[in-house]
Amino acid sequence: MDKYIVAGNWKMNLNLREGEALACELASYLEDHPPEKSRVLVGVPYIHLAAVTKVLASSGAVVSAQDCSEHQKGAYTGEVSATQIKSTGAGAVIVGHSERRAYHHESEEVINQKIRRALDEDLTPILCVGELLSDRKNQRQESVVSEQLKGGLAGFDAAALQKMVIAYEPVWAIGTGETASPEQAQEMHAFIRKYLGEYYDAETAREVSILYGGSVKPDNAREIFGQPDVNGGLIGGASLKAASFLELIRIAEFL
Ligand code: PEP
Asked: Which range marks the domain in which residue 137 is found?
């Protein structure tokens, strides 16, 4: 397991030229300063996958899609399959992001199927879980997250889990500037690890990378990444500028 994973999520931002330019800035830093403790991942729009993979080829960074179809192939207009993602040279795919759950009504069954498609193609699935503000206000965060884990991971054995990354992203902290406190993040990450330990086994749970996502920025990353059960971050806004994303990589590297 890498000590940290610093994963960007560009969401639906940056045109192709802008994406390539940002990837070039990342590549030139990473080629000169290859991270020793952390793995860098960049989640880009589908149209950027092939070009960004090329730009980052010698950087050690992994390029990720932000979603994939639950179907293998066929008449699904507008969808992109895990096989197609793999063919671009990408190595990972974000699955079950809260924005997909909210705006595309993705069910646990669909998310589970997407993970299966990703694993079939040897792509690392990054399974996102996290509660709404109303869940947290009603102290339902643990039951919501355990249901998401149960549904998403149904039918996968420990060997499959070892190929995945989990991202805890409280929905109330995504893109809002509101961050979970380091204590809140640690509490949920420890809960997730305990849940996985019971569902699988202690060693598998210890090894799985659990990322925190929700308004991570250079000024709060040190404390969050420093929590014992936090293995890095899934970063939206702060991954759109090389300066802030590279700063997050440096923070993980020198913690
Ligand atoms: C995300 O995109 O998953 C995310 C956490 O976004 P932000 O860092 O902007 O809150």
From this structure: 4-254
CA-to-CA distance for 92 and 82, rounded, in angstroms?
A: 9
Paired tokens of 220: 């709060």
CA of 218 to the centre of ligand 1 (A): 13
**Hunting for tokens 């998401």 — which residue is that?**
148
What is the domain-level CATH number for residue 102?
3.20.20.70
Q: How many structural domains does the chain have?
A: 1
Residue of the CA atom closest to atom 2 of ligand 1: 236
Q: Which atom of ligand 1 is nearest to the CA of 238?
A: 8
Profile the chain (255 residues) by mean pLDDT over runs of 10 residues.
Answer: 89 98 98 95 98 98 98 98 98 98 97 98 98 95 98 98 98 88 97 98 97 96 97 98 98 94
Q: Which one is catalytic: 106, 121, 169, 189?
A: 169
- Answer yes or no: is the C-beta of 237 below 6 A from any ligand 1 atom: yes
Does the annotation count 97 as an active-site position? yes
Q: Is the dihedral of CA 84, 90, 95, 97 positive or negative?
A: negative
* pLDDT the model gives residue 244: 98
- b (16+ CB within 10 A) / e for 193-211: bebbeebbeeebbeebbbb
